[in-house]
Amino acid sequence: MFKNTFQSGFLSILYSIGSKPLQIWDKKVRNGHIKRITDNDIQSLVLEIEGTNVSTTYITCPADPKKTLGIKLPFLVMIIKNLKKYFTFEVQVLDDKNVRRRFRASNYQSTTRVKPFICTMPMRLDDGWNQIQFNLSDFTRRAYGTNYIETLRVQIHANCRIRRVYFSDRLYSEDELPAEFKLYLPVQNKAKVSQLSSEEGQTVSCRSCVPGKCSVLQVQLQSLSVLTWSMEDFYIIRS
């Protein structure tokens, strides 16, 4: 899909408040749902994936099973809300041996297992919203001793809420991120907003409003729990 596209900086494949957030995705639902809802914490539209069985309710990109993403950017970043239920996602990559490898992360297993074509690993999410940072190049090298070439497919299973899924050429600090890649938290108590220190995030308000009479909610940057994996963090079982 993106193989012949110039790739640098950021490449987004899902944005929950876009007009068609699942335009390039396919979805499978059994005993569950995939729908857009308004999240109470951020007061904005997010994509919710819920199901009684994580393996039968999911979204996958590209929508066409015969196509591949062809994304060469090595960092996968997902802004995900922890629903305190079973959750898993999977990424398929191509390495320099022309072998397709899959990385599957889930919050219901405790050890990392490396098999010839799939690496499964544990994942721990904090309460609320999390930013998952996945260094695909590092994982491919450490798990298989090969070099990452490109990402072929991304599949996200129940149970979670999604704000955005994107790739980047490197990890960016909060200050470097474009505004649309940050998560905002509504703050209705304006007295509380005025007391925020610069360390807690910047305050944003409507430029055209009359002070004290604006009905637009002020917002502050939501502090995300950032999950960055390293293969060194795991006890690895090879088979």
UniProtKB/TrEMBL annotation:
InterPro entries, sorted: CFA20/CFAP20DC (IPR040441), CFA20_dom (IPR007714)
GO cellular component: axonemal B tubule inner sheath; centriole; ciliary basal body; nucleoplasm; sperm flagellum
UniProt-listed Pfam families: CFA20_dom
Domain CFA20: 1-184
BP term (GO), one: positive regulation of feeding behavior
Family matches, as PANTHER family: ORF PROTEIN
Protein name per the record: Cilia and flagella associated protein 20
Organism: Monodon monoceros
